[in-house]
Amino acid sequence: MNEVRIDKWMWATRIFKTRTIAAEACKKGRVAIGGVSVKPSRMIRTGETLQIRKPPVTFSFRVLALTERRMSAKLVSEYLENVTPPEQYELLAMGKISGFVDRARGLGRPTKKERRDLEQFIDDTETFDPSGFELGEEEF
User: Fold this and answer.
1) I want to staple 66 with a disulfide (CB 3.0 to 4.6 A). Which of 4, 5, 98, 110 is the partner?
2) Is the pTM of this model over 0.85?
């Protein structure tokens, strides 16, 4: 076996959960060899280095051996070498640490402080008595 389709190889080495997801990543330009995006049908050889973008990180793998059959996770190290620079893993760690802090206001579940503020606002509106206000006749 001299060459294998890149989508089959990425699925077989457990980089992607399904072959369809691997093919979609190629179509979206997230898989590159030598800085050039590749199609799912691109044949790969041993010794090539793949760059796979899974935002915010770009993983790099060197092909050690070829296979079309999915394998157990224990055997993956025989088929690929992870050559991802440490800076990429630092980006991943920073994303996990600051992910909650960078959340746009109003998106996702409310924080404890936001929930308390909301509950206080609702309690204030329930105790509001509009009968104490008089409207002038010129407003109607």
Assistant:
1) 4
2) no
Q: What is the DSSP string of 100-129?
A: TTTPPTTSSSPPHHHHHHHHHHHHHHHS--
Tell me how crowded residue 80 is: count the other CB atoms within 10 A of its CB: 20
Q: What would the two tokens of residue 12 be?
A: 């077989």
DSSP-derived secondary structure letter, 31: E
How many residues are given for the chain? 140
The pLDDT tens digits of the residues spanning 110-123 come to 888 888 988 888 88
Alpha carbon distance 43, 45 (integer Å): 7
CA atoms within 13 A on the CB side of 32: 12
